[in-house]
Write a structure and sequence with these properties.
Length: 141
């Protein structure tokens, strides 16, 4: 999926007033997601994203860019996830959750299904609930 397609879809799904807020939301969610995923998995995700968004992920995972040097993901829950996205977008946590769900829906369509399965599996249940409904319930008993 191309950069402009992703931004347009996020804008429509999150009902954002323009491309700027959609771009900001997409970058904020991808950055926060990269902080939560193991760095190798985040790097694989970056490889399937448009360059403009891959850079946001690589800033977190690439030690040369000041990112994490280890492979361990930060462990945080939905409250922290929403707070980080809200801080990066300048919105409240409710808006951040709505925007995150939109970005994750677009991401689900943009990434290879196998990779999205790995991303989903690396997330705790509360953050995984933001994924499209079919994906959020997979793997749960």
């Amino acid at each position: 999926m191309q950069h402009d397609d992703m931004v347009g879809k996020v804008q429509a799904l999150a009902r954002l007033p323009g491309r700027g807020p959609a771009e900001r939301a997409t970058r904020a969610v991808l950055t926060t997601l990269a902080e939560r995923l193991p760095s190798g998995l985040a790097a694989h995700m970056a490889a399937q994203l448009p360059q403009e968004f891959a850079a946001s992920v690589r800033e977190v995972t690439d030690p040369a860019a000041g990112g994490a040097s280890g492979s361990a993901a930060e462990r945080f829950d939905l409250t922290v996830f929403a707070g980080r996205v809200a801080g990066r977008t300048g919105t409240d946590e409710d808006a951040a959750l709505r925007e995150a769900a939109a970005v994750l829906e677009v991401l689900d369509a943009a990434l290879a299904p196998e990779l999205m399965e790995h991303v989903s599996g690396a997330l705790p249940t509360d953050i995984r609930a933001l994924l499209p409904s079919g994906r959020a319930t997979e793997g749960e008993s």
